[in-house]
Amino acid sequence: MSNHYEVRYAASPKHVKAYDTETLRDEFLIQDLLMPDKLKLVYTHYDRYIVGGVVPVKKSVKLETIDPLKAEYFLERRELGIINVGGNGTVTVDGFVYKLGYKDALYIGRGNENVTFSSDDAAKPAKFYLNSTPAHKEFPTKKVSKEDAEVVEMGSLETANARTIRKLIVNSTVDTCQVQMGMTELNTGSVWNTMPAHVHDRRMEVYFYFEVPEDQAVCHFMGQPQETRHIWMANNEAVISPPWSIHSGSGTSNYTFIWGMAGENLDYGDMDHCKISELR
Fold first, then answer.
1. Taking the complete model, does pTM exceed 0.90, yes or no?
2. Can you give the residue ranges of every domain in the chain?
3. Which residue, 13, 54, 109, 241, is the most exposed by fewest CB within 10 angstroms?
4. Is 200 known as a binding-site position?
5. What is the spatial distance between Cα 199 and Cα 202, in angstroms, rounded to a whole number?
6. 214 has binding-site annotation
7. Is 45 flagged in the annotation as binding?
8. Residue 15 assigned ligand-binding role
């Protein structure tokens, strides 16, 4: 079996206020997601979200169920979003083959029993980043290329947050039960993401940072708007954001990140904004 998983439990904002650096990182930071020929999964009790990654090099890797799901196969009661952040690769879903290039996305609906991942070239392997949520209904599997995404330009160089948002797996492009995924690319000279910050009590979120240059880092901010905390993050690492928390970051260079969401609402604009002057 090539699946490796861990479980993360939900924490209240009252308790998180007292966390030291090590505890904060243990609870919310996800490292070592992209391991050769292994599929790593983190099952979080925030909206039963699963974050994962797989890098097939020498062999194809199958998506297998894990014990917390109590299911015969992984997507028995779940849906899955995938974004490739590596070389060209293939995702095979119950016999149907989907080719994914760099920054292409794939949505897989509930009820698909056999999902496998492979790379076209072992020297330049695909790197599949995964997000999965519970699903109440079957929807068709659909590929969304980077070019197919809904694109929004936000921010400015003057405030160091000029960025391109690509909505890949959202309700305007793909039918889903609740998983939502997209990608934000920071322009050269810009380092701030999701600033001004916001919270959304109706759903949680996970950020995956990549294209972070070697020897550079991103400082991710979380916590309640008046009780913020920070986590320093490296390339190809993810961080869990509870519904009560902001999720924002500033890098020592520009970078790209993938955002994924789950909860009650599929409305991308459903958020409560936080004034910069009121953050603490």
1. yes
2. 3-278
3. 13
4. yes
5. 9
6. no
7. no
8. no
